[in-house]
Hints:
The complex is a heterodimer. Chain A is an all-alpha fold. Helices cover 73% and strands 0% of the residues of chain A. Chain B has helices at 42-50, 72-75, 92-102, 107-120, 136-148, 166-183, 194-200, 218-223, 228-233, and strands at 4-13, 16-26, 31-35, 57-62, 65-66, 77-80, 154-158, 186-191, 203-208, 211-216, 240-248, 253-257, 262-265, 277-282, 287-302, 306-312, 318-324, 334-339, 345-347, 353-354.
Amino acid sequence: MLIDRYSWPQKLALYAAMAVFLTFILLPFLEMFRTSLSPMSHLFHAPYEIWSDKFSFDAYFAMWKKVPLLGRYIWNSIFIASAVTALTMIFVIPAAYAYARLDFPLKNLSLGVFLSVNMFTGAVLLIPLYRVMNTLGLLNTYWSMIVPGVAFLIPTGIWLLRSYLEKIPRELEEAAFMDGASRLYTLRRVVLPLAVPGIMVVGVSVFIGAYAQQYLFAITFNQVAELQPLPAGLNQFIGYQTVEWNQMMAAALTGVLPVMIVFLFLQKYLVAGLTAGAIKE
Amino acid sequence: MATLNLQNITKSFGAAHVLHGIDLAIKDKEFIVFVGPSGCGKSTLLRIIAGLEAATAGQILIDGVDVSDAAPVDRGISMVFQSYALYPHLSIYENIAFPLRVQSLPETEVKAKVGKAAEILKLTDKLALKPGQLSGGQRQRVAIGRSIVRSPKIFLFDEPLSNLDAALRGDMRVELSQLHRELSATMVYVTHDQIEAMTMAHRIVVLNKGRIEQFGTPMELYHHPATKFVATFIGQPNMNLVQASVLGTTNGLTVEFSGGQRMTLPVDCTTATVGSLVDVGIRPENLMLGDGLSMTVRVVERLGGVAMTYGDMPDGTRICAALPGDTPVAEGAVVGLGLNVADAHVFDASGAVMRRLNAPTLVV
Ligand SMILES: Nc1ncnc2c1ncn2[C@@H]1O[C@H](COP(=O)(O)OP(=O)(O)O)[C@@H](O)[C@H]1O
Ligand SMILES: [Mg+2]
């Protein structure tokens, strides 16, 4: 389209801005990768060397011996984040639909209250949460890391998905209603299939949120080594004398790799979901 | 069999009063058109009949049974939406089958019914496609297909042709009239387009600001508009309105126009008072060159058979005459326009008509 054409100075500025932005985001990853390849002796070497022929993938092999449960931690991370995402979506989808389409008392107020809970970071609520977990007997179980994760992610999930559902034309649901379809039938056969891109976006953002939250809940509510997620497990690379930075970075990268690969495949849906509704057909 | 009765339907959205006491009796197998300007409450009234919206007060009776609180599907009503409301992720087959799937009918029955609907609507070779792959007219047909598989008693249409281009609209008008004959069902059709109303309706409901202005056959509305609003809404181009003052009320209404011309119009003028002002309504097709009103010609549009002649009267009133195509009128010229007094409509200050006494007897 004609309107998409930029003049070359505009293009230059756009690309420059993008380069700065990407540098900020990607540089830490590059540095992680570089660190993971360096031998320990090289790490505090001055002057700083971008590349050296002493670099190797040794840390990627050594890390499994140094921390024997590493594989388990990676699995735990993915399991906890996936469980949080699945549970969150089970609550978010019907709630978001209700907020998008139904009228009920205190609709806006209740959503506001939910969201305001998100204003508190988990950290502020750790002590009360600890007592709740203790009372429910959930300490030192997977649940202790899943339940608070779900609770903190539901409000933003509702908020995001609601605005997506609101863009699905009401007439589609009215047409189904005219034909005798119940709300649930309409939700299942009409609304949800059309909301797939939106559900993907919310699912991914919930997953990322769940992954990021794990650390805090894990170190507070769980002492069982076999249940720890990766961020907490990485602590074990911190020894009494030295920190095995190269192995720690190697483990961190290995841990996020499967997630990144999944996201690469989901990208198609993400872009569709993020731009949907921008253009009316 | 399906008669539809509306009794004193009112509707308010909060403080906004949209419908004020609608009473209507629709006969079995009638094709009824609701027509009126945008925002007059047509869609709202249709949605109340459908059961998508609850009336604030009043009753809806179908075949004499009060269905005011019944769900749409229990009313035996189906509706075609202005946006078609097709499900973009489902095939045409599944779109048409949707109401049958809701009833969980066996596949053989679904197949037979969808096949029959597709045949009537010439969609048989499109069943495997998605709505996005069809043209506007075809999507329209799918929407109609979905409404007929359920064999409802009453069909509702909300401006179904407004998203189509002019040529297709003409074709679809004919197809819809034909469909009505084939299905022999009661249909209620909403439009803001008076041509659709005139061409398709058995009877037209003219709505204005949430009230029924008039309910009658197309030719009744054309020859006997009850109000000034109906008179100017029905007929293309619009009826001319020329102000005049009343001189006498014996043996018809004697009026004087601002240019001094006098005419005695054969209307029922029992309510008129001498000295009051009235609007004389004259359809462009009833004007001819001759003695009478004078007009300075501004624009002549020659359409072939007719020459649409637009101009101003001496007092500035705009006037339009549909003259024979070859009439030698030139832009800028001053011409006289005559009329047969029996063709004149007269409206009092409130907009109500004084009934014409020598109007053509209706053949339709
Ligand atoms: N859900 C609603 N809430 C508030 N006002 C509405 C609603 N639906 C329609 N209206 C108002 O009712 C009036 C009639 O609307 P509508 O029936 O859609 O008119 P039409 O179909 O004749 O163009 C309009 O003024 C519109 O703004
Ligand atoms: Mg409308």
